[in-house]
Specification:
Elements (H helix, E strand, L loop, with lengths): L10 H6 L3 E5 L2 E6 L3 H10 L2 E4 L4 E5 L2 H5 L14 E7 L5 E9 L4 E5 L4 H10 L4 E3 L4 E6 L3 H4 L11 E6 L2 E6 L8 E6 L4 H10 L3 E3 L1 H10 L26 H6 L5 H10 L3 E8 L10 E4 L2 E12 L4 E9 L8 E6 L2 E8 L11
Parallel strand pairs: 3-13
Antiparallel strand pairs: 1-2, 3-9, 4-7, 4-8, 5-6, 6-7, 9-12, 10-11, 11-12, 14-17, 14-19, 15-16, 15-18, 16-17, 18-19
Helix pairs in contact: 2-7
Length: 353
């Protein structure tokens, strides 16, 4: 007997649209519809619609209590705004990376699918009241034409958050996403998920799956939890310093503050870098990285980038080798492939500032 997988509120629609389904984080999820390359292109040039309902939506009402668990300035997050932040353990390791929006009466957090139960248990263990709403649907509408497909959200700027009515359905909308393109993440009641998706598809969005989502986020230089960051990763090594509030670091009043401040003071032993490879063959997760025959790191994510028509990767290398232009060798099928460290992102972001 196989393990039964969770399904999202859009499962029926995904199957009717001809999705090729795969297991991801305990869910049966669409890998692709028309094809990864076509869906990637649709997002870069038009508007692509992703079912991301496997991610967890949760409501938090105690801002001060939540602030103790993250290094971001939650007290300074204004109503109608969203922020990327990190749940950290005492060692400064990343329990999860999450998006948190202030809706005035409460914060709404979006948690990674494979970590949402861990996150809620951690927050509750720290005395925080959390209301999980994992039954809700969540759609990511991404691409330069996303604003044309969702005119209701056209007035929002990057990282704005609002409660909006779309096609008669009550939704929470943020102007954000995981592809490097302009776009929106739209949450609604689970029973409205299919109708909302059908409306956006009828307006011109193209259905897209996890395959294109991965190639898009890698081109945008965005880390994926479980691949590029985990409970052993210090945010400084991962290049996530932008998520560390200077004020909070000085106050050192959050879990993991001592470890994060120590990494900032001494510099991390290794750093997450972007790598562009020569040739056509991509290097996948766990491929060894060498310099002059010596192991200096490991690939955490790799893909053939459709936009660049070249293979790219993220990986950790010794900190002294993290400078752009540094030549590396990536071991793929026991053969060394030439690559070099490049500045992230691989493809420029196209957010609505």
């Amino acid at each position: 007997m196989g393990v039964s997988l969770h399904t999202t509120p859009l499962d029926g629609l995904n199957r009717r649209l001809g999705a090729r389904m795969v297991e991801f984080a305990g869910y049966d999820m669409p890998l692709q519809f028309a094809g990864i390359m076509a869906e990637h292109k649709a997002c870069r040039e038009g508007a692509a619609l992703f079912d991301v309902s496997h991610m967890g939506q949760a409501i938090i009402r105690d801002v001060a209590g939540f602030s103790r668990l993250v290094p971001g300035d939650m007290a300074g997050l204004k109503p109608g705004r969203q922020r990327y932040t990190l749940l950290l353990n005492e060692a400064g390791g990343i329990i999860d990376d999450l998006m948190v929006a202030n809706f005035g009466t409460h914060l709404q957090a979006v948690l990674n699918a494979g970590r949402k139960d861990v996150d809620v248990a951690h927050m509750r263990a720290q005395g925080l009241e959390v209301e999980p709403h994992f039954e809700r649907a969540l759609l990511a509408l991404q691409g330069p034409k996303a604003k044309d497909v969702l005119p209701e959200g056209a007035g929002l700027k990057f990282m704005d958050a609002a409660a909006l009515t779309i096609g008669g359905m009550a939704c929470v909308v943020t102007r954000s996403g995981y592809t490097g393109e302009d776009g929106f993440e739209i949450g609604c009641a689970g029973e409205h998920g299919e109708a909302l998706a059908a409306l956006l598809l009828a307006r011109g969005a193209v259905p897209a799956g996890l395959g294109a989502r991965d190639s898009l986020r890698l081109e945008a230089g965005l880390p994926l939890y479980g691949n590029d960051i985990d409970e052993t990763t210090n945010p400084v090594a991962a290049g996530l310093n932008f998520a560390l509030s200077k004020k909070r670091l000085e106050m050192a009043d959050f879990i993991g503050a001592a470890a994060v401040n120590a990494a900032l003071a001494s510099g991390p032993a290794s750093k997450l870098v972007g790598i562009r490879l020569e040739g056509r063959a991509p290097a996948r997760s766990h491929a060894e990285i060498r310099v002059q025959g010596a192991r200096v790191g490991e690939v955490t994510s790799g893909v053939f980038a459709p936009t660049l028509n070249a293979p790219i990767a993220l990986g950790y290398v010794r900190a002294d080798l993290a400078k752009p232009g540094t030549a590396l060798e990536l071991i793929v099928r026991d053969k060394p492939l030439a690559g070099q460290v490049v500045t992230l992102p691989f493809v420029p972001h196209n957010y609505a500032r």
